[in-house]
């Protein structure tokens, strides 16, 4: 009888917000269904290390079923959300239809190409684990082809990389590529010279890492230049076709590989009315994460837009706001009343530019260099799920620190095989 009285909560998305909500909800009051298209939780702040061959996918991914077995009455359901029926209170996925009493949307964000419809097909990203792995394969492919190319001009074309977006993701992948150019080529690609490789980071704003303090921005800029990365500010991409980039001023340049980190928007949720969507396709909520105009529907994390006088554009689409929103919503739901309005506790922000290079902004001071890098390593390490994963990441980081060498620079293109015949066919 107790189970029949519990309300059903469907949580869409198993990222930082979704997994923390599942952990904190009262299992005696709620029966929880976690829906995600992947069967694992992953750690997006380290996607750039997948793309740069510093780690492999399994280092920063953890199966939902392994994590959820610690939680009583939380079940995982794989599937892509096809529709949300707000009247019937049902979520339809690729494989099933789930009824709910309360719905929490924690689906995160996806790339925003600002209306340039061809970019998803022409560029590479690091927004998902699959994108990061694909980007890694492309980078390694260009290096291998460059090593074989006898034409100096074509070799330079093959080894031209453009990173669009000067936020933390863009700075970190540009720094990782810079380390490959400065330290890895001479060890593993003796056929190539650093002069053959061009790495350019472009940012439309007057500065990189716009959310950080000036001291940190300047230190990050210096670190990128030390790694032979060209940084162009106040530079906006207008189009990218046939490997040619056209900038807003009309200037055109050839770049073989374009890595897009310039913007994000809320993951589309079929069934959510357009009037519930705000800036960047994020779902508008009140201070309690209740979706505007809908009953028993909530949004948390990157997809949620809580607009206040202090945050007219919403909170940063980062891990800490997502975690804090999820925990605050769980507190309200567990209490059965909405008494705690969300207040973001900004613990600071960090970015790394490579070995011994990082910048950190804490609430009252900033610091950079080796110590900031060590702090960055520690914070990211403890945030990864699974002790085996933590140890694997630590070992890879330690080995790379000592030798700038890794066994992970493997070009593993996925192959689709024909269906195998079964016995008796």
Note the gap between the termini: 49 Å
Instruction: Detail the poorly predicted runs.
Output: 419-425
**Total helical segments:** 12
| Silhouette | globular
Sheet of most strands: 5 strands, parallel
- β-strand percent reads 15-25%
Gist?
With 425 residues, the protein is of the alpha/beta class. It has helices at residues 2-5, 16-24, 47-51, 64-68, 119-122, 129-148, 152-158, 168-188, 214-226, 319-335, 370-383, 387-403, and strands at 7-12, 30-36, 40-42, 61-63, 74-78, 81-85, 90-93, 97-99, 102-105, 109-111, 124-125, 160-164, 198-202, 230-232, 237-241, 244-247, 252-254, 257-260, 264-266, 283-285, 297-299, 304-306, 349-354, 357-361, 366-368.
Descriptive terms for the model:
425 residues, alpha/beta, five-stranded parallel β-sheet, 12 helices
What does this structure look like?
The protein is an alpha/beta fold and 425 residues long. The protein contains twelve helices and 25 strands. It has a five-stranded parallel beta sheet. Strands 11-18-12-13-14 form a five-stranded parallel beta sheet. Strands 6-7-8 form a three-stranded antiparallel beta sheet, with no helix packed on it. Helix 2 links the parallel strand 1 and strand 2. It is globular, with a radius of gyration of 23 Å. The C terminus is likely disordered.
């Amino acid at each position: 009888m107790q189970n029949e009285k519990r309300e059903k909560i469907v949580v869409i998305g198993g990222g930082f917000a979704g997994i923390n909500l599942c952990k904190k909800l009262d299992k005696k009051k709620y029966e929880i269904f976690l829906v995600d298209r992947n069967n694992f939780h992953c750690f997006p702040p380290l996607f750039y290390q997948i793309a740069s061959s510093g780690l492999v996918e399994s280092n920063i991914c953890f199966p939902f079923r392994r994590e959820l077995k610690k939680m009583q009455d939380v079940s995982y359901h794989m599937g892509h959300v096809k529709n949300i029926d707000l009247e019937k209170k049902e979520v339809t996925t690729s494989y099933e239809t789930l009824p709910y009493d309360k719905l929490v949307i924690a689906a995160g964000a996806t790339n925003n190409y600002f209306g340039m419809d061809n970019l998803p097909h022409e560029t590479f990203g690091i927004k998902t684990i699959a994108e990061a792995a694909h980007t890694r394969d492309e980078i390694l492919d260009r290096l291998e082809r460059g090593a074989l190319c006898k034409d100096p001009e074509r070799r330079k074309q093959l080894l031209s990389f453009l990173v669009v977006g000067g936020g933390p993701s863009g700075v970190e992948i540009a720094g990782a590529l810079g380390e490959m150019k400065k330290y890895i080529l001479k060890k593993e690609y003796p056929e190539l010279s650093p002069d053959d490789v061009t790495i350019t980071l472009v940012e439309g704003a007057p500065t990189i890492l716009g959310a950080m303090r000036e001291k940190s921005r300047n230190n990050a800029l210096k670190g990128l230049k030390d790694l032979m990365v060209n940084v162009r500010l106040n530079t906006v991409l207008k189009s990218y076709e046939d490997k040619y980039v056209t900038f807003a001023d009309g200037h055109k340049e050839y770049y073989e590989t374009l890595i897009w980190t310039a913007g994000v928007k809320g993951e589309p949720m079929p069934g959510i009315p357009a009037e519930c969507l705000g800036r960047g396709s994020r779902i508008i909520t009140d201070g309690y994460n209740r979706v505007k105009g809908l009953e028993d529907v909530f949004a948390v994390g990157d997809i949620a837009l809580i607009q206040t006088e202090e945050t007219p554009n919403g909170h940063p689409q980062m891990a800490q706001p997502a975690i804090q929103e999820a925990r605050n919503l769980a507190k309200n739901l567990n209490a059965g009343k909405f008494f705690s309005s969300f207040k973001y506790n900004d613990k600071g922000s960090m970015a790394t530019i490579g070995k011994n290079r990082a910048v950190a902004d804490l609430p009252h001071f900033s610091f950079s260099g080796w110590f900031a890098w060590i702090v960055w390593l520690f914070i990211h390490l403890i945030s990864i799920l699974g002790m085996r994963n933590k140890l694997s990441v630590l070992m890879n980081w330690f080995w790379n620190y000592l030798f700038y060498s890794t066994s992970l620079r493997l070009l593993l293109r996925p192959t689709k095989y024909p269906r195998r015949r079964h016995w008796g066919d």
